[in-house]
């Protein structure tokens, strides 16, 4: 394959996955809004708990094995079958253990039968999700992401169709879990058929001592980072359910889902810049510093208007999308939106640490903040409920931001004059946008305010020279390859 063809292939794959990820998040958010509006806060709490609980255990099935499959399989494509068969064996074993662990723990925690049944079905979905994750991993190793992108979009669309049908047909709550289970199973069938018939791989687990001995040491840092990150992200939902009840978790699920839906902004930027960070760290430290500072700038430029507008119009958004039953979600949403600023920067900082051979530092930091986050949730949830969980998330995101910044500064100098100028420009831009959006909301409603606020922000970016035409072209050149 020529260099041009390879670059074209990478560009196509990136386009496919970016489109699929954005569409998936949009459909997922709209679907969740429909579900929450129709089943009420208590059932939303049960539904969200079941998904969050089993999402933690998914990481124990995969343990970073898919990352290793992609990385090592891409190096030596002739060995993809050996890696896939060995990893499949390990995942079947881990999947069985994880399902048993889910069964034991959910019964030990003493939840009612309906909640336990939701968890059981979600746990089966977890096993299918882990299987098609590795199947798509083999396709990534072959450099083909279009089938995965299609699978992601169709699967999410099918969940939406089935779920809304079950919902408006007044089926019991358990059927909303079937709306995940059925597409996940079909995704396994779809992905395995491509792997078997197009790439002629065998869907057969195999014990290969040599392969496993090679894989396991590589997996450990991936596994630890994945476990810490997953527990850090979802432990608040589990603790809220147990310490505050389903209704409070239902209130918290709304701001949590809104914050998660906006993750495509930093994810897209990190996907484009991570390879460049690695390249510049090895060959050109000045370019690394430039790319790092520019990534902070463009992330803030893109993310901050979302944060400010959601913060300002949080009550209107909650009532319009989720009804007045969820008014107790407004304050947690405001707090989480402040934390989102640091969470998004942490995507950049984590990417820099990993790209610059500081993955052990990154894993350690996630582990430390996981412990702090759990302790804060245990202290704050009993008295403050969803607000307490939001405060814990804000403190955790800020703590991760501060620690990451400290370690990055040891090998990458900060241009404080650049950052001070950026913050001043953004402050003026956002202040004007905030004021105009607030006034428009009072007189014309929040839908018009959203539109006018967005236009005001774009105009002010150029008025304050936060963004110039030259800088846009520079960033496009930085990420184009």
Q: What number is the mean pLDDT? A: 81
Q: State the domain count.
A: 2
Count of separate DSSP helical elements: 17
Roughly what fraction of the amino acids lie in strands?
under 5%
Termini Cα gap: 17 Å
Portion of residues in helices?
over 70%
The H-and-E topology, N to C, reads as: HHHHHHHHHHHHHHHHH
Q: Give the C-alpha Rg.
A: 23 Å
Q: Structural class of the helices, strands and pairings?
A: mainly alpha
What is the strand tally? 0
| Unreliable parts | 1-11
For the report, how would you describe the main beta sheet? none
Could you explain how this protein is built, in words?
87% of the residues lie in helices and 0% in strands. By secondary structure, the chain is mainly alpha-helical. The protein folds into 2 domains: 1-207, no CATH class; 263-481, no CATH class. It is built from 17 helices and no strands. Keywords: Cell membrane, Membrane, Transmembrane, Transmembrane helix. One of its GO terms (cellular component) is plasma membrane.
């Amino acid at each position: 394959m020529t260099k041009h063809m390879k670059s074209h292939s990478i560009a196509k794959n990136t386009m496919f996955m970016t489109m699929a990820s954005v569409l998936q998040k949009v459909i997922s958010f709209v679907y969740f809004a429909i579900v929450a509006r129709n089943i009420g806060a208590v059932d939303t709490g049960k539904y969200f708990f079941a998904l969050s609980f089993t999402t933690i255990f998914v990481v124990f099935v995969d343990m970073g094995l898919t990352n290793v499959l992609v990385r090592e399989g891409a190096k030596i494509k002739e060995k993809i079958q050996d890696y896939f068969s060995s990893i499949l064996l390990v995942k079947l074993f881990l999947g069985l253990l994880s399902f048993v662990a889910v069964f034991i723990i959910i019964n030990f925690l003493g939840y009612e039968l309906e909640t336990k049944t939701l968890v059981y079905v979600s746990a089966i979905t977890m096993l299918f999700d882990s299987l098609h994750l590795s199947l798509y991993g083999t396709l990534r190793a072959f450099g083909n992401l279009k089938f995965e992108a299609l699978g992601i979009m169709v699967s999410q669309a099918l969940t939406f169709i089935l779920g809304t049908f079950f919902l408006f047909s007044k089926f019991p709550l358990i059927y909303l879990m079937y709306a995940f289970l059925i597409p996940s199973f079909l995704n396994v069938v779809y992905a395995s058929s491509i792997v078997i018939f197009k790439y002629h791989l065998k869907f057969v687990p195999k014990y290969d001592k040599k392969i496993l001995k090679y894989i396991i040491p590589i997996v450990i840092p991936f596994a630890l980072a994945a476990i810490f990150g997953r527990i850090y992200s979802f432990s608040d939902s589990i603790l809220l359910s147990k310490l505050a009840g389903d209704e409070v978790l239902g209130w918290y699920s709304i701001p949590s889902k809104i914050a998660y839906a906006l993750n495509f902004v930093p994810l897209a930027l990190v996907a484009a810049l991570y390879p460049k960070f690695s390249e510049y760290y090895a060959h050109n430290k000045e370019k690394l510093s430039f790319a790092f500072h520019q990534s902070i700038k463009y992330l803030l430029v893109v993310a901050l208007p979302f944060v400010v507008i959601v913060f300002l119009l949080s009550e209107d958004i909650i009532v319009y999308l989720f009804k007045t039953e969820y008014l107790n979600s407004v304050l947690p949403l405001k707090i989480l939106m402040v934390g989102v600023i640091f969470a998004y920067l942490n995507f950049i900082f984590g990417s820099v640490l990993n790209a610059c051979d500081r993955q052990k530092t990154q894993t350690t930091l996630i582990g430390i903040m996981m412990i702090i986050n759990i302790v804060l949730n245990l202290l704050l949830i009993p008295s403050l409920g969803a607000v307490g969980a939001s405060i814990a998330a804000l403190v955790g995101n800020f703590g991760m931001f501060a620690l990451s910044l400290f370690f990055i500064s040891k090998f990458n100098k900060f241009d404080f004059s650049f950052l001070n100028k950026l913050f001043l420009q953004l402050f003026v831009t956002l202040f004007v946008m905030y004021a105009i959006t607030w006034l428009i909301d009072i007189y014309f409603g929040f839908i018009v305010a959203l539109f006018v606020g967005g236009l005001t922000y774009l105009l002010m970016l150029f008025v304050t020279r936060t963004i110039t035409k030259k800088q846009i072209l520079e960033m496009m050149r930085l990420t184009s390859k």
